[in-house]
Structures are given as C-alpha cells and as structure tokens.
Specification:
By secondary structure, this protein is α+β, with helices and mostly antiparallel strands. It has 19 helices and 28 strands. Strand 5 (about 160-165) and strand 6 form a beta hairpin. The relative contact order is 0.12.
Length: about 625
C-alpha cells in the first residue's frame, strides 16, 4: 500500500500516477517515459538561449508586460544565462519558471524535464466562491465518491475556514501570487481552482505532502479538521481535440494548464460523461440534457421557468471548451441543438472555458445574429525575427498576410504588424443565423483565450449582453504556439532554435489579439472583456445556478422578441414569423421576391425552381432582425 508521504514524494519526482483504481480504469495514464530530468551546463544554456530568442523576438506581449508590470524578462534571462551553470537543478528550474510566471500570461508557460505531460495533481473535492468579492465565502460543492475522504460530514455545502492552519481567504490570496493572470481577480480565480487541481506539466507539484482542511457544517458549529493526501492522474486529451502538430494547431488560443485541469475535473466528478466519450452516437450528460456528438465540449437543455415567475422556458447552452479539431462539425452540432431550443431566449454559458481552436469560437457567433460577424484581429510584434519568419517559404501560407506591414515597420517604426483576422470573415458568415430569440452570454474570470475571443465577439458584434461573474473575462489575448511550432517556423531563418533537451518545452503568445467593432484595436490581454457584474449566491453554487438563471431569464424576458422559422417542401416554402413587418427573399444572393409587408403567422411561397441557396431576411421597422439561409 502506498502511504500518503510516499505518494507525494513519488508524485514530486514524477514516478507515481495514482493509487485510485476507479480513476485508473477510465484514465489513459501510463508511466511517463521522460528523461531523468538532469540538465548539464550546456543543456541549461540551450534552454535559456531558446527562450531568450523566442521572448525577445516573437513574444507578442513583451512591450505590454514591460509597461504593465515593470518587468524585463529579456534582461532576466540574460542574467540567468551567466549564472545557470553554478545553480542547483532545483534552483535553475525555479528561477526560470519564476521569470515566465512574472509575465502573468497563461499562454506563455515553461515546462521542465521533471514535469509529467498531461498530469494533474488533485484533491477529491471542488471549492467554489460566492458572495461579494470583498467578503467572499468558500463552499465545497462536489466531493468524489472514490472513498478517499473518510469523514462523512465533509460533503457538499460545508464552508471552508482554514487551509493548513491558515484562514482560507488568506491562503487563496497568497497562492494567487504564484498564478498567471493579468488582473487580480483573474489570479484569485485561478488560485482558488489550483488549490485543489494543479497541472504538473506547466507548474511545480504541491509543496505539501497533504492538506489539512478546516471546515464547518453550519454557521455556529465548531470547526472540524480533515487531512487529505494529494493524488495524481493523467486524464489525456479529449477525442476530437486539436492535436499538436496538426494544421489547426497554429490557430489555437488556449490555456494548456487550464485544459488539463478541466479534463481532470471531468474525470473526478463526471464518470458517466467521461465514459460516454468513447461512444460514437450522440450522448446526453444526464437526464434532461440533450444528446450531443460533442459531449466533452457541449451541454444543452431547456431550462424550465419557475412557476412563481412570469418568465418563459428558455434554452441553455454550456460550452465547456473550444478544443475541437473539426470546427465545421462543431458549428453544425451547435446549430442542430439550437433548433431544439425555445425561441423565448437563450443563455450561452462559457464560464471556465479555457479556450481552444480560434476558428470554432469565432465561427459560432454567426448562429446568434442576423448580421455579418467581424472576427477579432491578430498582429505580430515587428522584429527582425518575425520578418524573417514571415518571409521564409516554409511559413508563407500561414504568415503571408502580415508580410507587407512587417516590412513597412522598418521605415515607420511601428511596434506591431497590421492586425488581421485568423478566422476568414467569409467563414463567419457561411452558415448564418440559426436562433431567433434574444441571447445572453455568461462568463467569469476563468473564461480564457478563445473563451475571451468568443466574449469579445459577442459584445463587439452587439449580439446581446454579457454577464460576468467577477470583473471581466480571464484576459488571454493571443494565438499561442508551442516551442515545436516556433522551432519549425524558424528552421530556415538566421534565428533557428535547436532542439530542446528531452522533456523541456514552452508555449508562447505569438499573435496578439485585438477587438473589432466599437472596441476596434483594444487589446484583450490583461484587460479581458467586461460585462454586467454578477455575484454568485449560495444557491447558485449548491443548487445548479438557480439565481443566476433567474437573473438571465429576467433579462431575456425584457428583451424585444421576433421569430422566423422556415420549412421547405418540394413545392413550397412556409415561413412562420412573429414580430416582423417585412420580408425579403433572395436566391443565391440575388433578389427573388420584392420586399413585402407581413403580419404574424404563416406565409407560403412557391419554391424556386433554380438555385442552390434560399435566403430570407426579416425586418422590423426597417431593421434586419432575422435572417435564414436554406439549401435548395
């Protein structure tokens, strides 16, 4: 039997997976085939030189981080280069990790040779916060049924009072100093999450062998204490996620550590959903949820209105991640789910979404609006390295649009290239609107990367209100590349990076994201996307977001509503409308029927005998409020 002390010592040395048979049955974990972790002087010099080249020449946020945090990672790396050979192994990795963490950028992270690819250290419970930010309360909301916690009184609903003898709120604040995040609230949110779930590939193992937790069952009762040892799993990537080295991997915006943690939480608390990933047919998370072909990324259901309210039933769509390889199938699946939702309103929930494929996030926005969607823009820092990279024949397909502005920056002194979209604007309008009713989006400080991009597009394209738990979204504003991506892209340039020692790696913010629309040019990094502030309640964290959903329902009930449904047969087209006063019909982009006045109800049109696509445009007082495209 592995003791808790032996377990964590092996965890810290990278030799233990887990002694939890129930988890091992469904995890893909096997002992890592990493090196012994030792780097000699030449290895250390190579690692520092590679990071120095990447950050000085390709890191898109370098100017912003220097200004915002009064830090100079380039000079810090130069100093480390001169001292690395005299450091102990632990001191070297700690110093190097500290330089990168000080950037407060979850896209830019370093993983040393003793880390375990995809491994997550975890405690068998989940903590959530509710109440105002200046006086928060912390509740246990989920406890694993694996039998690791022997105290029957420790269950969902208990309030945490202490952490290793320290007041719990103070423990979260101290841990936040070790977290990435451009704003204090984002660091606090990540600190609360990483107290119980920590990615070992992109961070150090826990300092303690176990955790002593103090809690109360109810107010006024004495504090009880419980000792819980750390355990580790390697949940693996989701089937259908973006594979490293694939063509789509260069269009990713994700916090890799947060994605590992999200998967570990699913493994710990949602065993049925985890096992459902192996099924090819659409599956539902549980009773009341709609089956979907993307169970790792999507959940959808009809939210029934409470009897005591005057609100109607509304739709609820949870997007857990944008880590999907097939963005076309992903958009089609969301469109299918939207057809099953009531048209009185929809809540799109992206809380805790760590990001993923940029194409998937930005193309999804068109389903909720009749207007053309403008995607976010991305720019490269203008340096000799990025110019050489863009001009390399190997990179022309990926970076050609940025070449003219990178070259002109030599004469104009611009710090950045022109900001251009990664997602083709035509792709953001190739499916069109699929949901008729009003929409609200819900995010929090753990909504990151492509989650940030989705929220920015939601606000900037005026789709609906954004409700934010906390001050704003997580503020991850970049397209992230791995060191493999960067090494390949620099291969035929004067800035080539040699292969790193086995097990060592890093990710880097490569293309800087700025917003479109009314906020055109505003960076997302360190700022995030602000919305209507909302403080979670005790009922929210223990009873499935009941107060949050009631608040969203009240906003949707007050929003203006129109509707348009289209049904095609071989002979005619039936349009069911509400709240519209005028219709226009186009075939393959050309007017087919002149604008005509309508009233609520059914309008039957003869089906066009030619053409590939029928487009119906509905107006209300001259403004386009509904649009549908139907293949003929």
């Amino acid at each position: 039997m592995v003791t808790p002390t032996d377990a964590l010592r092996k965890l810290q040395s990278g030799k233990l997976l887990s002694d939890q048979p129930a988890l091992l049955k469904v995890s893909h974990a096997k002992t890592a085939s990493a090196s012994d972790g030792h780097l000699d002087a030449s290895d250390r010099a190579l690692v520092v030189e590679a990071l120095l080249t990447a950050i000085d020449g390709a890191y898109c946020h370098l100017l912003q981080k220097r200004a915002g945090y009064a830090t100079d990672p380039v000079q810090s790396l130069r100093l480390l280069m001169s001292r690395a050979a005299d450091m102990s192994e632990a001191e070297f990795h700690m110093t190097l990790s500290g330089i990168i963490v000080d950037l407060r950028d979850a896209h830019t992270v370093y993983s040393g040779p003793k880390s375990l690819a995809g491994a997550v250290a975890q405690l068998p419970f989940l903590v959530e916060q509710y109440g105002p930010t200046d006086s928060p309360s912390f509740l246990v909301t989920k406890v694993s049924r694996s039998g690791l916690i022997k105290d029957a009184a420790f269950k969902p609903g208990v309030r945490l009072e202490s952490w290793n003898g320290m007041p719990f709120e103070r423990a979260v604040a101290l841990h936040a100093d070790r977290e990435t995040g451009g704003r204090p609230d984002a660091r606090l949110a990540r600190a609360l999450e990483s107290l119980t779930f920590r990615s070992l590939q992109y961070g150090p193992p826990p300092d303690e062998l176990w955790v002593d937790v103090g809690y109360r069952e109810r107010a006024g009762q004495p504090v009880r204490e419980l000792r819980i040892p750390w355990r580790m799993v390697r949940p693996g990537r989701a089937k259908g996620g973006v594979e490293t080295g694939a063509h789509a991997s260069l269009r990713v915006a994700v916090s890799p550590a947060a994605e590992h943690v999200r998967r570990a939480k699913k493994l710990m608390f949602s065993g049925a959903q985890w096992q459902a990933e192996d099924q090819r047919a659409p599956v539902a998370r549980e009773t009341g949820w709609l089956p979907t072909r993307f169970p790792d990324a999507l959940s959808a259901r009809v939210h029934r209105a409470a009897r005591r309210t005057n609100t109607a039933d509304i739709g609820y769509l949870r997007i857990w991640t944008f880590d999907v390889e097939d963005h076309v199938a992903f958009v089609e699946e969301v469109a299918r789910l939207l057809e099953l939702m009531p048209d009185q309103g929809l809540v799109v929930d992206v809380r805790g979404n760590p990001g993923g494929l940029i194409w998937a996030a930005e193309r999804l926005l068109q389903l909720f609006t009749p207007n053309k969607v403008s995607p976010n823009r991305f720019s490269l820092v203008a340096t000799p390295l990025t110019r050489a990279m863009a001009q390399s024949p190997f990179n022309r397909m990926e970076l050609a649009p940025w070449i003219p502005s990178l070259e002109s920056a030599l004469a104009t002194g611009e710090d950045y290239s022109q900001a251009l979209p990664i997602t083709d604007p035509a792709w953001c309008d190739d499916v069109g609107q699929r949901y008729s009713g009003p929409v609200v989006c819900v995010a929090d400080a753990n909504t990151y990367s492509s989650g940030d991009l989705f929220c920015a597009g939601f606000v900037d394209n005026e789709i609906g209100p954004l409700i934010c738990v906390g001050e704003a979204t997580g503020a991850g504003g970049a397209n992230v590349w791995t060191h493999h991506d960067l090494t390949d892209a620099l291969e035929d340039t004067p800035f080539a990076i040699p292969a790193l020692p086995e097990g060592v790696g890093f990710t880097l913010s490569f293309r800087r994201a700025v917003r479109a629309g009314a906020a055109s040019g505003v960076p997302i990094e360190d700022l995030g996307v602000a919305g209507i502030p909302y403080a979670m309640t005790r009922r929210d964290v223990l009873e499935g977001n009941v107060d949050l959903m009631a608040y969203c329902a009240s906003l949707l009930a007050a929003a203006p509503k129109t509707g348009l449904r289209v049904q095609c047969t071989e002979a005619d087209v039936t349009l069911t409308t509400s709240g519209l006063d005028e219709l226009e019909v186009y075939v393959d982009g050309r007017p087919w029927q002149a604008a005509c006045a309508i009233s609520d109800g059914d309008t039957v049109l003869a089906r066009p005998d030619r053409g590939d696509c029928l487009e119906i445009v509905g107006r209300q007082q001259g403004q386009v409020v509904q649009r549908r495209r139907v293949p003929l």
